[in-house]
Design brief:
Fructose-1,6-Bisphosphatase, Chain A, domain 1; D-Maltodextrin-Binding Protein, domain 2; binds ligand LZGB4YJL; binds magnesium ion
Length: about 280
């Protein structure tokens, strides 16, 4: 039987590469910065332009009617963020916008594709490092066409863990984030890290450079592609309460195995984050 998703997968890789080249070029000129949900949730013209390029190319190739699109900047402008059974592209045009603005060298283009709410493939182009990560469900994970594999460490005391602070600086939430980090650091683990992009963090789990990455407050476009890449590299995804991973829940633990994941989960202080697919509240 013909493989229906090979063409979209190959196309996603070429679009991600094209988008990454645009980001690199834009980084050479002055970057005008605006904000979204908070004063530290940054957005630039490049985020918007690159998302338009990606969605425009996908629509041209696959038609507007049959495929749906969830893109970070389109959702910010009021488009729907509901995952249906239709073939759906989930896109973060510039993951690591703060890094991009500051010239911190980890910025990724993240493109995932889901059908019947199941993620079929994920492509992450770490464009400043020029590394192309990709995975298709059931077919393994790759970096620049070389197979990648999570680490086999089961001893938490020999692990490196990644987390991020996010863009919600409500003092009670920040307190919980730092309390969690303090507890994990004191297990003790070898180290705590953060690249500033959820997509790249997940690739670091997938290559075995770190054992786990967790965050509360991320969005589906930050982690959809990484979810496929981590699982295809042999890793696992869980909710921060140890339950099943839910793409729209804005919380996730990705790890090399369930021993590491469950040990981390013991220390996570959970705080609320509104779901990506929550009904939009009408403004008065
Ligand atoms: O850079 P963006 O696409 O906004 O995504 C980042 C997110 O906003 C932050 O909350 C996370 O901490 C980063 O890891 C994301 O990648
Ligand atoms: Mg992002």
């Amino acid at each position: 039987m013909e493989d229906p998703w090979q063409k979209p997968y190959d196309f996603a890789v070429s679009v991600a590469r094209k988008a990454g080249a645009e980001i690199r070029k834009a980084g050479e000129s002055e970057i005008k910065v605006c904000t979204k949900s908070s004063t530290v949730d940054l957005v630039t013209k490049t985020d918007e332009r690159v998302e338009k390029i990606i969605i425009g190319s996908l629509k041209e190739e696959f038609g507007e009617g049959t495929h749906c699109f969830i893109g970070e900047e389109s959702v910010a402008k009021g488009e729907s963020c509901i995952l249906t059974d239709k073939p759906t592209w989930i896109i973060d045009p510039v993951d690591g916008t703060t890094n991009f603005v500051h010239g911190f060298p980890f910025v990724a283009v993240s493109i995932a594709f889901a059908v019947n709410k199941q993620l079929e493939f994920g492509v992450i182009y770490s464009c400043l490092e020029d590394k192309m990560y990709k995975a298709r469900r059931g077919k393994g994970a790759f970096c620049d066409d070389e197979p990648i594999q999570v680490s086999d460490v089961k001893d938490i005391n020999k692990s490196i863990i990644i987390s991020e602070h996010g863009t919600d600086r409500t003092p009670e939430k920040v307190k919980k984030i730092f309390s969690t980090m303090q507890k994990i650091l004191c297990i003790p683990v070898h180290g705590l890290r953060g690249s500033g992009t959820a997509a790249t963090n997940m690739c670091l789990v997938a290559t075995g450079a770190v054992e786990a990455f967790f965050e509360i407050g991320i969005h589906c476009w930050d982690i959809a592609a990484g979810a496929v890449i981590v699982q295809e590299a042999g890793g696992i995804l869980l909710d921060v309460d140890g339950g099943p991973f839910d793409l729209m829940s804005r919380r996730m633990v990705s790890a090399n195995n369930d021993v590491i994941a469950k040990r981390i989960i013991k220390e996570i202080e959970i705080f609320p984050a509104e779901r990506d697919d929550a009904p939009v509240q009408k403004k008065c």
